Design the sequence.
């Protein structure tokens, strides 16, 4: 497998009330293509900060991150937005769908930003939502959907841009057991069948059980990295 | 889809959008109505002054305006009148003889400007006949008829058919007097007509003045839209031995008033637009602050800051495109209705008429004014939306996403 993400010596220091906080401390991490990785650890260990840095949402204080050989740490904000749009899919804990758009429009929206044609957008959005078992909710707005359904739309949205990998920050934290099981099965299936790379941050034991690789953080550093 | 998102965002909080739209409607309505009302005030005053006092222009002997001596008559009035009749812009002409004198009744006497008119021509130009409140317009059955204003009649304590004596100096410098009978009493907002003029037949006056057919003043009215100053300049070139003055020259106070009202209107516009701008800024800022996380997600997903900025601007423009026309319709409807029915200020009529205003106002607003209001509101809305839109793109996606 080829290397997809390579983080070398990354650190992130926050200066909260002038006392420096090392959220990520001189970390090295490599993610291969097609991996199904869970980043775990207690609250405040740096999971979300690490995901933000790997996803190009935040800059490290030091170190560098390469995605498919492209160094994103020196990229300007505008270039980084374009890079994220083409290469990275996001799934958030709170789903964060656009409330005024229907399920299908939420999925189409990403492709619109990629300047894809109307027909292509519509077809792919419908296909993805059907794949996510949301075929009967295409025209529902987020407010009309249950949490698990919203998160499935969010996964479809993350997949819509055909990204190199998907970052999911605590995707099951707000879901009940059945929805979590359902969502994990879907993502696992996509990973197996389409070799889409997933990187999760999670506290959820059920996610950890499904993960093929478990990276454990503590105080901003990796304390274990296990492949199954 | 950006348009769809912006449009739907407008309706996410119907109450708040409704308040902004309502504020726009009221603001634009107030602006339209305020402009229409002030213009009617101003136009009414100017039109009244032009109609009853100055006309659109007057022609005199060059020295008459400085020293109103009866010897300063127009050299060849027939030639001037003939030329004026050829001008398509001129729709009414009247010739007058003028003298300052005294009017006295059995009980009072006062200074007055005696105007010798041709009743038919005068009615055509100044509609003096329409001002008759009591009596008749130069009744043919009375010899030496005179028309005076209500205030003057009150002062002299005379009524219709009462005798008055007009005393003045004739062409030979002799004091002469003529007995006249009040044929009609005029009711006018104009102070000049109401208090200090006496209208007699030109032939009667000229006979007493001993000036035959000579005249002192030719007044003319023009068609709407005529450049009165340009016409006056043209007449001055054509008749260099006479002095033609436009209404602007005859009454600089009217010009000043026009400018002053214009300035007040501008202040009114600035006040309303500023209030509107603050309303928009407040609402759009609220809309942005409520959606910090959503904006962060949009930027995280790949929506660049330019599009986020545009989206917020579009939301404001949508609000304006709803509120603007509604406000204009409300303003137009009000002005059309009141322009027809008039605003009756008769309870203030004494005060208004004392300063020369009509007691019924008819608001009006031209197409250009409506267009200016629309453009003004649009520009205000666009300017007002810049700050909230700028604020929206200042957020860091990571921080915004984790905002509660």
Sequence:
């Amino acid at each position: 497998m080829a290397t997809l993400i390579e983080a070398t010596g990354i650190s992130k220091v926050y200066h909260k009330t002038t006392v420096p906080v090392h959220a990520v401390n001189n970390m090295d991490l490599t993610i291969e293509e097609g991996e199904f990785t869970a980043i775990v650890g207690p609250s405040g260990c740096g999971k979300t900060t690490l995901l933000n840095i790997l996803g190009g949402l935040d800059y490290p204080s030091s170190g560098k991150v390469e995605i498919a050989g492209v160094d994103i740490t020196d990229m300007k904000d505008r270039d980084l937005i374009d890079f994220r749009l083409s290469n990275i899919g996001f799934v958030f804990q709170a789903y964060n769908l656009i409330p005024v758009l229907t399920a299908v429009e939420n999925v189409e929206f990403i492709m619109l930003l990629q300047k894809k044609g109307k027909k292509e957008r519509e077809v792919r959005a419908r296909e993805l939502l059907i794949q996510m078992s949301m075929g009967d909710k295409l025209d529902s707005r987020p407010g009309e959907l249950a949490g698990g359904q919203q998160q499935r739309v969010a996964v479809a949205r993350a997949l819509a841009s055909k990204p190199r990998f998907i970052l999911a920050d605590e995707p099951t934290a707000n879901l009940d057991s059945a929805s979590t099981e359902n969502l994990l099965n879907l993502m696992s299936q996509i990973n197996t069948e389409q070799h889409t790379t997933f990187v999760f941050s999670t506290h959820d034991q059920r996610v950890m059980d499904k993960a093929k690789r478990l990276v454990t953080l503590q105080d901003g550093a990796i304390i274990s990295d296990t492949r199954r | 889809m950006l348009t769809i998102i912006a449009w739907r965002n407008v309706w996410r909080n119907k109450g708040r959008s409704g308040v902004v739209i309502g504020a726009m409607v009221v603001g634009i309505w107030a602006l339209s109505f305020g402009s229409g009302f002030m213009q009617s005030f101003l136009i009414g005053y100017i039109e009244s002054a032009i109609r009853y006092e100055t006309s659109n222009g007057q022609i005199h002997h060059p020295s008459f305006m400085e020293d109103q001596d009866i010897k300063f008559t127009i050299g060849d009035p027939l030639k001037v009148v003939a030329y004026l009749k050829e001008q398509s812009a001129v729709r009414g002409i009247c010739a007058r003889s003028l003298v300052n004198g005294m009017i006295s009744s059995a009980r009072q006497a006062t200074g007055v400007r005696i105007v010798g008119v041709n009743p038919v021509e005068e009615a055509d130009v100044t509609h003096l006949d329409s001002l008759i409140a009591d009596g008749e317009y130069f009744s043919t059955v009375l010899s030496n008829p005179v028309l005076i204003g209500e205030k003057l009649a009150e002062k002299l304590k005379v009524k219709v058919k009462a005798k008055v004596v007009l005393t003045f100096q004739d062409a030979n410098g002799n004091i002469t007097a003529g007995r006249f009978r009040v044929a009609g009493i005029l009711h006018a907002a104009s102070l000049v007509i109401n208090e200090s003029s006496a209208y007699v037949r030109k032939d009667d006056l000229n006979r007493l003045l001993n000036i035959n057919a000579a005249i002192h003043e030719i007044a003319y009215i023009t068609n709407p839209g005529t450049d009165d100053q340009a016409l006056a300049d043209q007449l001055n070139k054509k008749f260099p031995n006479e002095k033609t003055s436009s209404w602007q020259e005859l009454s600089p106070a009217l010009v000043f008033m026009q400018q002053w009202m214009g300035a007040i209107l501008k202040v009114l516009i600035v006040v309303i637009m500023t209030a509107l701008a603050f309303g928009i800024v407040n609402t759009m800022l609220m809309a942005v602050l409520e959606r910090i996380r959503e904006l962060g997600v949009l930027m995280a997903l790949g929506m660049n800051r330019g599009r986020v900025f545009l989206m917020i601007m579009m939301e404001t423009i949508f609000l304006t495109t709803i509120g603007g026309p509604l406000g204009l319709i409300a303003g137009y409807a009000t002005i059309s209705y009141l322009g027809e029915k008039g605003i009756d200020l008769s309870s203030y009529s004494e005060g208004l008429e004392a300063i020369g205003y009509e007691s019924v106002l008819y608001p009006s607003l031209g197409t250009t004014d409506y267009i200016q209001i629309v453009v003004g509101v649009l520009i205000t809305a666009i300017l007002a939306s810049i700050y909230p839109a700028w604020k929206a793109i200042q957020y860091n996606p990571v921080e915004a996403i984790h905002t509660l």
